[in-house]
Amino acid sequence: MNNLIRRMKESMLFRLILVMALLTAAFYFSIQQSWIWSGIMIILLLYACWWLLRLHQMQIRKVIFLLDAIENNDNALRFTEKEGTKHDQLINKMLNRISQILYEAKSETIQQEKYYELILNSINTGVIVLNDKGAIYQRNNEALRLLGLEVFTHIRQLYKIDPDLIPIFENLKADDKAQIQFVNERGQVQLSIRVSDINIRQEHLRILALNDINKELDEKEIDSWIRLIRVLTHEIMNSVTPITSLSETLLSHSDVTEEEVQRGLQTISTTGKGLLSFVDSYRKFTRIPTPEPCLFDLGPFIERMIELARHQHNCDNITFQSAITPPDLILYADEHLISQVIINLLKNAVQAIGSQPTGLINIRAYTNEAEEVIIEISNNGPPIPAEIAEQIFIPFFTTKDGGNGIGLSLSRQIMRLSGGSINMLPVQQSSSTTFILSFR
């Protein structure tokens, strides 16, 4: 009996009937001018309305608890489905079902966002999504790498790189194509930008796709040089080989005694051999073997390179310093090919310092935020002029007497085949000449 009465009190229908009955009784007693009973009915009516409002508020609180739990990723909230009236049980069951549906939808959305973020971070194109106020909604790791930023939440942060970039990013519109260039720790950077747009939740967003022009230009330049060199070596070898062979035959079997003829044949032979040696040295540039990468410790490797440089060059006036962070840092690359790059850079550093006293060559190896292995080789010799620095990686360009101009271009080709890059730090950013090797 008590259980029945409790359920009747909690029943929404019972409360509505009670309110209507009290309202009717109050109206009846007021017509009869029975003010005492009319007042009692009005008081009871107000209590019944409060009673009804309290039940309504309880249901609202349940919905609020549900929304708070969903917002806080709390999937443990459950309303009882076995107590109270059938009406309450039905409402609780519906709220639990809504909670499960919304939680699953939110979880699926989070998984999709992670999925799309992984896709963005796996492509070699920088992607930036921003609104018309310059706030960055999305950017991938490649965009941060290309711009040389660790955090990028607003285009005003481009001020750290170059203040002139801010108005360029602000004025870019859909279907625009632009090129920008700036200098950061990686050296001279040239980027192409393509713009598209989209409206999401009544907000206009622009999508910027960034690509490294330097890499594309360098690859095209190297490919052109390789084709040219192969043609030259083929033609020169075909022409020089018979001349050399003929001159050597004449020198060994001819009975000609005239001094001028003998001297001429000697000149032909010497020139031919020199030209063959010249062509053979450049052939190395187009015949780099396919890298066979393996894991090796950078600490012992760098020490071997330093000892080799000391052995090959007279550098008693030069101090070599090395710092490997962490000490057990390892590199996955072709050790033989990379040693050629390091040896060439150390040779150039020794030649740049020359006989100046207190010469210093510093070698650092570490990993950056993008988990790339970085090797820096710097020397305190005279800085390279800016007009020369722009051409040092071009094949055959040299300022040295007797130099062949393939050392740095060969090093860049080896680094590219190894999946890395080599750049010289701009003079204005360093008091020394610094080359940076990056391995992804």
Question: Total helix count?
Answer: 12
Distance between the termini: 79 Å
Rg estimate, integer Å = 40 Å
The rough form would be described as: rod-shaped
The structure class reads alpha+beta
What is the helical fraction, as a range of percent?
Answer: 40-55%
Secondary structure: number of strands: 12
| Content of β-strand | 15-25%
Strand order of the largest sheet: 2-1-5-4-3
Overall average pLDDT: 77
Output the helix-strand order: HHHHEEHHEEEHHEHEEHEEHHEE
> Biggest sheet, open or closed, and with what strands and sense?
5 strands, antiparallel
Low-confidence blocks of residues:
1-10
Summarize the structure in words.
By secondary structure, the chain is α+β, with helices and mostly antiparallel strands. The protein is about 55% helix and about 20% strand. It has 12 helices and 12 strands. It has helices spanning about 1-10, 10-30, 35-70, 85-120, 140-145, 165-170, 215-255, 260-285, 300-310, 335-355, 385-390, 405-415, and strands at about 125-130, 135-140, 175-185, 185-200, 205-210, 295, 320-325, 330-335, 360-365, 375-380, 420-425, 435-440. The strands form 3 sheets. A 5-stranded antiparallel β-sheet has the order 2-1-5-4-3. Helix 2 runs antiparallel to helix 3 (about 35-70), helix 3 (about 35-70) runs parallel beside helix 4 (about 85-120) and helix 7 runs antiparallel to helix 8. The chain is rod-shaped, with a radius of gyration of 40 Å. The chain starts with a helix and ends with a strand. Mean pLDDT is about 75; it is low at about 1-10.
